[in-house]
Design brief:
It is built from 12 helices and 5 strands.
Length: 250
């Protein structure tokens, strides 16, 4: 649970590059939590990220994180009130479990994404990031429930089309093999010096490649590049073979 990740969340959840990226866009974030432990865990988890809890006090929040662990009807009212006050804000609901009917009602009330309170802190942060990029995120356990219902209603002989295979961003083709590997490393949170050591090139050369990557994929900083890579390079991960091949090419 979130409690289990408090000790290492601050150390491991810094933006790609090893520290808070001053150029990263701050996301004014509002917690709507009745569970004191959950609120404390989320506050600690978001410390040092682009999700700014203090910013929501003076600005319209960009993201509302809703505690959905309590009474369901009260949670729905909380969500409706939040959307009425902040119609442009994205909403993520967090609970210990979700069922299909509850999710349908929550979506109708204004929830964009759902995440389990038992998720690893990296999963929670990625859920918030992808939600701010316009994605709708569901836990794998909930997806299995939905697919099981679809298969049951359609019958064993029918094929259920899956909408999970999105067309890749055309900007992927602009990246060279080396830039792709570097971008995968950014997605994993590696700082420049670590990437340079893996590729056996200078840190200054890595900085040049990173600038080229940001320009090619149309983002402003490393954090946004890592978020873009999560959605577009998720099927390919950096491997020892990638780095060895690029070393031979150097």
């Amino acid at each position: 649970m979130i409690k289990d990740h408090l000790e290492d969340a601050a150390a491991q959840d810094a933006p790609a590059g090893g520290g808070v990226d001053d150029s990263a866009q701050r996301v004014a974030t509002k917690l709507l939590c009745g569970n004191v432990l959950l609120q404390a865990g989320l506050s600690q988890l978001l410390s040092g990220t682009c999700f700014d809890l203090a910013g929501s006090a003076s600005n319209e929040p960009d993201l509302c994180i809703v505690d959905a662990t309590g009474h369901f009807q009260q949670t729905l009212e909380l969500i409706r009130d939040a959307k009425a006050q902040h119609p442009a804000a994205r909403v993520v609901a967090i609970s210990h479990e979700f069922d299909v009917q509850a999710v349908q009602s929550a979506v109708a009330a204004g929830v964009d994404s759902f995440c389990l309170a038992t998720s690893a802190h990296q999963v929670l942060i990625r859920t918030f990031e992808l939600t701010m990029l316009g994605e709708r995120i569901l836990p794998a356990s909930l997806m299995r429930q939905i697919l099981a219902q679809e298969l049951s209603s359609a019958g064993a002989g029918e094929v259920i089309p899956l909408a999970d295979h999105r067309t890749p961003d055309p900007k992927v083709s602009k990246l060279s093999p080396r830039e792709t590997v570097i971008l995968q490393s950014l997605m994993g949170g590696d700082p420049n010096k670590v990437i340079a050591r893996k590729l056996d090139i200078t840190e200054a050369t890595i900085k040049v490649h990173v600038k080229a990557i940001l320009r090619k994929i149309g983002v402003a900083n490393r954090t946004q590049a890592a978020m873009w890579a999560t959605g577009n390079l998720r099927d390919v991960g950096p491997t020892a073979g990638n780095f060895q091949e690029l070393r031979r090419m150097s």
